[in-house]
Write a structure and sequence with these properties.
Elements lengths: L1 E2 L5 H10 L6 H11 L13 H10 E2 L4 E7 L5 E6 L5 E9 L2 E5 L3 E2 L17 E2 L2 H15 L3 E6 L9 H12 L11 E5 L3 H7 L7 E5 L5 H7 L2 H4 L2 H15 L3 E7 L7 H11 L4 E7 L13 H13 L4 E3 L22
Parallel strand pairs: 1-2, 6-9, 9-10, 10-11, 11-12, 12-13, 13-14
Antiparallel strand pairs: 3-4, 4-5, 5-6, 7-8
Bound molecules: S-adenosyl-L-homocysteine.
S-adenosyl-L-homocysteine binds next to strand 10 and strand 12.
Length: 341
């Protein structure tokens, strides 16, 4: 038995063809699963019994078990889900001016080892299946009773280290008869797996790309992000440039401000040089301190000066506002108390 939530339209069509059925039934099934949100195939009224029985033998309409649902004062909600093998994952729902946005997790744990990040303190146990990523959006939408309009792939895990499942996830949630989340309303963030950025440049959905740069040179980046040893800044920038040329799309550059590490005006200058002429949007992120880590958030004044300096250097830049800090749901803080040991 397989989860229906891991099947893209293309896969469903292939399957239907294989069993001698009409491929157009794929879109009917998608509509029932994601629009009507059926919990049993028996609820489907426009497909004959015989095929429904076959579907029932092949697919399950599974779900994620919600262990806790926490609400923040600002409307952010954090969900802890238990997977079928007992592993726990977290998903965050954020209320924005433009709608509801869900931040999904892609792996159980993470192997990237970014020094400032809480997620990497648990080594990666496995990739999430496509269905487990799709179900995070489905379950959060159901439990919070909202329509999800935006998705960010910025929870635990490195999405480009689980590339195929993440790409299929995009196709499934984007389907016009399904959840219909616009590609431009989806953002995937990577710590900079260069090979996958080239591959992603060929992907035909216009899903936004964000890069966790966090440092203006190799010296600093090597210190805080081990991935930089495999893919140094120059190689990363080359890949980003290729991606922009190939897709004609803008890239978001994420830059956490860490006190005394990467927040000097000299760093701002180097960053401006590095990004000069690039179709990029810089997102400065106030660091959320992690108890087990030595890093500190930059002073407010320092952040503002850094921001002003980038503005002066004519970069497209914003200082990210924060949400969900009171429930440990803020960016990079997804590490449930349940997982602490
Ligand atoms: N692995 C992917 C996506 C997950 S992290 C990536 O690295 O991009 C999403 C973002 O949160 C990344 O930019 C990450 O560097 C950042 N982040 C991690 N820990 C943080 C913290 N404590 N405070 C603020 N941002 C953090």
């Amino acid at each position: 038995m397989e989860s229906i939530y891991g099947y893209s339209e293309e896969m469903l069509k292939n399957y239907l063809t294989e069993i001698g059925e009409k491929p157009f039934r794929a879109s009917q099934i998608i509509e029932w699963v994601y629009r009507h949100r059926i919990s049993s195939f028996d609820e489907i009224t426009n497909i004959k019994k015989g095929l429904l029985e076959t579907l029932k033998q092949r697919f399950i309409l599974d779900t994620l078990e919600c262990v806790t649902q926490q609400k923040s004062a600002d409307g952010t909600q954090k969900f802890l889900f238990r997977l079928h093998d007992g592993n726990l994952i977290e998903t965050v729902l954020m209320r924005q001016d433009y709608g509801y946005s869900v931040c999904v997790t892609t792996e159980v744990g993470c192997n990237m080892g970014c020094c400032f990040c809480a997620s990497g303190m648990k080594k990666k146990l496995r990739n999430l299946e496509t269905s487990e990523i799709v179900l995070q959006v489905m379950c959060v939408s159901k439990l919070a009773e909202v329509r999800v309009s935006h998705v960010v792939v910025m929870g635990i895990g490195e999405p480009f280290d689980n590339y195929d499942n993440v790409i299929r996830f995009f196709k499934i949630i984007n389907h016009p008869l399904g959840l219909e989340i616009g590609a431009r309303h989806i953002t995937v963030s990577t710590c900079g797996i260069v090979d996958k950025i080239y591959e992603y440049a060929e992907f035909d959905l216009q899903v936004n790309l964000a890069i966790s740069l966090h440092a203006p040179n190799d010296e600093i980046r090597n210190q805080i992000m081990p991935v930089n040893r495999a893919y140094p800044v120059a190689k990363l920038l080359e890949a980003i440039r290729y991606y922009i040329e190939r897709t004609n799309r803008r890239v978001t550059i994420e830059y956490i401000l860490l006190r005394g590490i990467n927040d000097s005006l000299e760093c701002a200058d180097m960053l401006a040089d590095l990004l000069h002429g690039l179709n990029a949007y810089v997102n400065l992120i106030p660091y959320n301190e992690v108890i087990e880590k030595p890093y500190k958030r930059s002073e407010r004044e320092t952040m503002l000066q850094f921001f002003d300096h980038l503005k002066k250097r004519r970069l497209n830049v914003q200082l990210r506002r924060e949400q969900g800090g009171d429930i440990d749901a803020a960016c990079g803080q997804l590490r449930s108390k349940h997982l602490k040991n």
